[in-house]
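Everyone, carefully examine this protein record:
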Amino acid sequence: MPLAKRISSVGRVMGLVMLIALPMTAHGEDETDALTAMRSELAAMRQELARTQLELQKAQHELEEVRAFLSEPDAPKQIAEWKQQRQQWEEERKQIAVERKKLEAARAAMRDTTRVEQQKIISAPPPAVAVDPAAPRWDVDYKIAVIRNNLPNESIYIDPEIGEVLLERYPDIDHKHIMMRGTWQNRSSVAWRYTFEIRIADKLGRIIGHWRYQTPMLAPNELHAFEVKVPVTDVAYIERYQIGNIEPDKGESTLPAAPGQ
């Protein structure tokens, strides 16, 4: 071949190579992604094909077992027995479902009955207890007061407060005495006299002041007002106070008049 033709052929080949190489350079990344996706898809198809083949083999094996069973001489008899047994089991299942519904209905009725009975017990008034109208019965109400040093004849009655709060509110008070005022009503149908104890305690429950008090003989429903000056260890320690040790009687008075009367 002449040299000019050879050079021309080589030029055409080089040009073709250049033309092929240009799109590869421009779209190389896209073609790589497409190739990767294709490989992944082929791998997934291969796995799916393998699973399908296994399922097909399993189905063929089961079909062979069924054919082998049907080819046995006693196969029709066995199938008839299975159908009969299946029917019996279906009847038993239905019967169990009916019994279960009956049981659930009985349980619901029992719950409703129990709920009604409990409501009756809750709403029913307590049984009447025979009360002797002549027995000693009473109502009492009382509260304490602090005593001012500069006005010893005046008391400041307060709501229940602990001693430390009292001193913060009323710094100029008697630390060694506290006043208690209240009312006592005889709720019995006959006259009674009542003796009781006023007790003042600290936060540990220790008694820091007490005084015994006795009402006069009170007629039925008679109301008696009392006011007592009770000595205490220190007002600052007061945490609680109460009336207790109540003793009703009908005899003569045995206690002296309380201070502050």
Observations:
- Residues 2-26 have pLDDT under 50 and may be disordered.
- The CA atoms of residues 150 and 172 lie 8 Å apart.
- The first strand starts at residue 138 and ends at 147.
- The beta strands are 138-147, 155-157, 177-186, 193-201, 207-214, 223-231, 240-249.
